[in-house]
Design goal:
This protein has 481 residues and is mostly beta strands. It folds into three domains: 141 residues, no CATH class; 156 residues, no CATH class; 49 residues. It contains four helices and 30 strands. The strands form four sheets. Strands 7-8-9-10-15-14-13-12 form an eight-stranded antiparallel β-barrel. Helix 3 runs antiparallel to helix 4. The longest helix has 22 residues. It is globular. The chain starts with a strand and ends with a helix. 32% of the residues are buried. The chain binds zinc ion (ZN) (2 copies).
Amino acid sequence: MQKVSCPSCGAEVAFKSTASVLAVCEFCKTTILKDADSVKNLGKMSDVLEDYSPIQIGTSGVFGDQAFNVIGRIQLRYPAGMWNEWYVLFDDGKAAWLSDASGMYTLTQERPASADTQLPTFEELQPARNYALAGMNYVGADIRTAECIGGQGELPFKVGKGWQARVADFRAGANFLTLDYSDADIPAVYTGQAVTLEGLKCQLLRDEDQVKTSAGKFKGKVDALSCPSCGSSVSFLPGVTTTILCPSCHAQVDAAGPKAEVLQAATRMSQVATTLELGAKADINGKPFEIIGLMQRADDENTSWTEYLLYSARGGFLWLVETDAGWERSTVLDEWPGWFKEESVAYGKATYQKLYRYPATVTFAAGAFNWRVNVGDQTDIIEYEAGQKKLAAEITAEELNWSQSLPVSPDQIRAWFGDKIAADKEEAPDGLEDISTKFIWWIIGLNAIPLFFAMGDTFVPTLMALAAVYLPAKAISWLKG
Ligand SMILES: [Zn+2]
Ligand SMILES: [Zn+2]
């Protein structure tokens, strides 16, 4: 470890990795460039935006048989969202990047230069296309130009405000590859895999309260800010949120910057009543989730559905999708089908067959999102099916995302949300009451016939049978009071 004095404030700044060339002074945020025998003051580094990430400088973990420590971080922003690249130092002195995008993690290491030939140019890359790279078959995942908006700790290259990253990510199963065109037309190649914090046995993570209360950018206002357009109080998860669509006036508000700014003025839009409301809390598999955003989308035949974005500090993001056919829970996959084929995909042990391909357009959105969503956004969706399980590929010009969904019963939704379900939607499933009422009259009729002939023992069992049929349907309306 090398220690230097901050040229601005004199505090001691440590370089833990010999590969680090730059460090940000923890106290005064001065960016310090390390030369062979001197240090240079490169001016102040923008503070990182406090976000949802449970990782912090000092977080440790294990990958393979090597222990590591997080020693630095850059925060990158692109038009539709942001992510963190955590610089990680292994005990053997090797370094890697732990990337955290909306709670999806990958760990990658740079491959030796010249190990790969014939790499594609940045301009020719497209998501949802197949590429043979570094001796494997990959699928284009996202292609983006991002800007560094802040840094922390020590870093292996010179970076500052305005530094641009031109990167493309590729996936194959759990394998992950990044082509980084930031410094040259011939990209640096990083390979690695999708990981989880549990899998990495991470220690010294921030807990949920730390994540929530550290959002200094809104001056201590945890969980609420004033809409810069209409002034109404908007709840959001500090740092989780890239974009807010004000539930009152529908302005699109940028919440990823140091101050909430209106991106797009309020549009005239009628309020949409949804079964579940923003802010509704649910206990799902022992983890506390909250609905932070909701949107409605419609296909080209004007069939529409509602999607609820749920977040839990430990459980990450989860979607609940409500269609005419019922409910589904959906998670974004960080392990992908290996090769992109439109007709069928192999995933896990199953082969999924294509169901439909359709364009989906956002028709309504409210609340907080971890990407920049707006009414009118269009995505191409291809749905696949294997038994009860579904896979969906969502494709835009910049990215491909895979999600997997499973049906959820209305009873399960009720169990998760309790009384948070909008009253008018809590009715028994369509027609159930009608059917049971008819059934009761039918039984009465049936039983009344012998009743006319002999006032025997049938009447009491009939009443009990009636109660058994009638009560479950009725109980729901009684409970709702
Ligand atoms: Zn300093
Ligand atoms: Zn507003």
